[in-house]
Design a protein that fits this description.
With about 150 residues, this protein is an alpha+beta fold. Helices cover about 15% and strands about 35% of the residues. The chain is built from 1 helix and 8 strands. It has one helix at about 10-30, and strands at about 50-60, 65-70, 75-85, 85-90, 100-110, 115-120, 125-135, 135-140. The strands form 2 sheets. The chain has a 4-stranded antiparallel β-sheet, with no helix packed on it. It has a 4-stranded antiparallel β-sheet with strand order 5-6-7-8, with no helix packed on it. Strand 6 and strand 7 form a beta hairpin. The longest helix is centred in the N-terminal third of the chain and has 24 residues, at about 10-30.
Amino acid sequence: MKRKQLHFKKYGFKLFSLQIVLGVLFLGPVAVAQEWKPMGQDDTDWPYLGGINYLSVAVSGQGVPYVVYMDRGSGDMASCRKFQGGKWKFTGSPGFSDGDVAFTSVAVNSNGIPYVVYQDAEHGNRATVKKFVSGKWATVGEPGFTESDALNT
C-alpha cells in the first residue's frame, strides 16, 4: 500500500490555518491573562503589615484562605490568619507557638480544620504540628517530634 504524502506547498496554508483555529479554540481561554486583586476592602487590608518571614498559604475546601507566618510583632512566634467576612482575622491568638519558629507551613483538612507545622526553637529546632480546634491551637502528638532539625517543612 502506497502512502500519500502531504506537500506543504499544496496543503501548508490549510494546515497552518487549522492549527491557528484549534489553538484559539482550545488554548484561547487558558492564555488570557488573569488580574490579581487584593483580598479585602483595599490595599491596606493585608494579612499583616509588620515584619513576617516564612509565609505559607492554604485554601480550605470551602474557599477560605489561611496564612501562617513567623510574626516579628509577636516575638518571632507563629501567627495564623484567615480571610473571613472581607477581612483578615487572627485564627486564635497571635504568637501561639511556644517559642521562635521558622519554616512555617499550613494545610486545611476536608473538615476545614487548619494544621500548621514549623521548626520549633523551643524544642531543639525540631518540627511541631498544631491544629486549631475549639477556638485554640492544640499540639498534635509531641512537640519537637522529629529526630533532628526540621528544615523546609
